[in-house]
Amino acid sequence: STQNETTAQWKEVKPGLFYTDLRVKNEDETFKDLLLIRIDPKKYSFSIYQNQIGEQAKTINEIYEETNALLAFNGQFFTEDFAPTGLLISQTQVLNEKSSADLVNGIIAIDHQREARLYQNHQNLNLNTLDFAIQNGPILLDENGNPAITEDSGKTASRTALGIDSQGNLVVIVLKQSLLNFENAISLYQFAELLANHTEIQKLGLHSVLNLDGGSSSGVAIDNKYFPEMEKVQNVVLVKAR
């Protein structure tokens, strides 16, 4: 079958919450299948659900259904014993402290004015002004929308990232994984280049894009559709109406 790129056909879940599938051509001439979700932080709140370890752990879809969320996706890196690895703030509550590790060099935060912003992890943050924050890394695109990764490790995986567009919306970008399509994986360097340079993605004016936990952790539920993670994750980002 001939593969072709697609243009974004945005579907409205509710006002201020849209998603689209997008097939794009990577610089190595392979095709990647993305799911893009655009969320207006003025209309929707972001929170963190912390999963239990072991038998009690739930899938992203179970959490999505049980919490009546409009959107649920995997969050921050976590350790083998299910501990988070950086700053997590949910509904003004600090769930986990900030880390100074180089691996988690960025924080996406939403303040009380419902404005989203990317911080480098060495910047001073006034935690009292924040409704929500998630720390992870690496930063893929900086505040000006420029790729922030200088060399290509060549290691490919499925990916989840969170960024901000020119309208101040939050944008979730998922390279959907599937047992039927192991080729739908990309290196962090190529992911950053694709987000910065692809003509269809450029229409969003994306900037401040932060890599979230990827690989077997990449999972997302929206509009009663579920693209499953391969392994249970410790923390899940939930989006609900304000």
Question: What are the key terms here?
Answer:
242 residues, mainly beta, 7-stranded antiparallel β-sheet, 5-stranded antiparallel β-sheet, 3 helices
Write the topology of this structure.
Blueprint: E1 11-14, E2 17-25, E3 31-39, E4 44-50, H1 60-66, E5 71-74, E6 88-90, E7 93-96, E8 106-111, E9 116-120, E10 130-136, E11 139-141, E12 160-164, E13 170-175, H2 188-197, H3 199-202, E14 207-211, E15 220-222, E16 225-227, E17 235-241
Antiparallel strand pairs: 1-2, 2-3, 3-13, 4-17, 5-15, 5-17, 6-7, 6-10, 8-9, 8-10, 11-14, 12-13, 12-14, 15-16
Can you describe this structure?
The protein is mainly β. Helices cover 9% and strands 37% of the residues. It has helices at residues 60-66, 188-197, 199-202; strands at residues 11-14, 17-25, 31-39, 44-50, 71-74, 88-90, 93-96, 106-111, 116-120, 130-136, 139-141, 160-164, 170-175, 207-211, 220-222, 225-227, 235-241. A seven-stranded antiparallel beta sheet has the order 1-2-3-13-12-14-11. Strand 8 (106-111) and strand 9 form a beta hairpin. The longest helix is centred in the last third of the chain and has 10 residues, at 188-197. The model has no long low-confidence stretch (mean pLDDT 95).
